[in-house]
Amino acid sequence: MQKINSPSFFIGKSGDGLISFGSGQPDMSPPKEIYKIQAKYRGFKYGLVQGQENLRVMLAKEYPCAKADNFVITNGASEAMDLALRALYRPGAKVALPRPYYYSYPHNVRLARMTPVYYDLVKGKIDLGNFAKVIKGCRAVVINSPSNPTGTVQELDVLKKIEKLAQKLKVYIISDEVYKDLIYVRRNYLMEGQNVLTLNSFSKTFNMCGFRVGYVYAREKWLIDKIVEIKTHTAMNTNILAQDMAYEAMKVPKSFVKKQCQVWLSRRDFIYEGLKKLGLDLWKPEGAFYVFPKMRNPNKVVNDLYYKYKVIVYDGTWFGSPNRVRFSYALDLPKIKEGLRRVGEYMKKEYKKN
Question: Is the pTM of this model over 0.90?
Fold first, then answer.
């Protein structure tokens, strides 16, 4: 029996009676309109490294004063983060990350040959005093709102103060907004400034995780040029069929996203109340689709639930929180209900022994 010490163990696992609270991908289908182009689609040559122009033009309409040349289309937001960090590289540079963080962030920073430092969140929120101390001397800071894994949304006044502070200190802001359309408490706030790089993807908004279409939006031309140059020698163009499907997704009425957000909200309420009834300590998510309750010995919890109860959850240690476990509610209500039943059974029989 292999001990589970990494999220890579779970990625792509399904079936065999499993209930997965681990997957960070929507279980709902993409808009049906994106498939209509396939019958007549005949593209097969290399595409533009920066991304197909029609998609970049469409994206520019979503951002105030943006132009198509401000965007690079990437293989999901993961490549967007990788390219943004490598473009910002300076010898000996530090990059400030929130803690808890998305589990790839520290690896992304180290692979870009920089050093991660951390500003600790308080109940999922940024503490400005601590934040201001940590980012001094940093090359960049990552903001993730709504957050994976916490499900929290940062306050507007805090984000605006961060903009001013980062400009004053000449620190670049990498704003990871993959969950920007999945907010329950307010509309998304787009961070402003020449020093801001915005990362996003079509994965969460349009349920297109496997298509791997994301993007970087940068205000400074040198950054776009640097990102395109790096991408030329790594992945080259992003899948051109997937880009055209993403283009079609952007034509879908906004009601498509609003209806889905209502589904996420109902699931949020169900799993939050369910975990509270099991006696777990957690805050109520304001966006995305994760809950992050406190649990003792999370690695044992992860292994026990998987091997004994066929339930997947993620170890908070992977996210910088060794006293929590992440549950995704990207699965339908009957499965959430069954999963909570199994978790409840585990807690009665075994958890108290941890």
Answer: yes
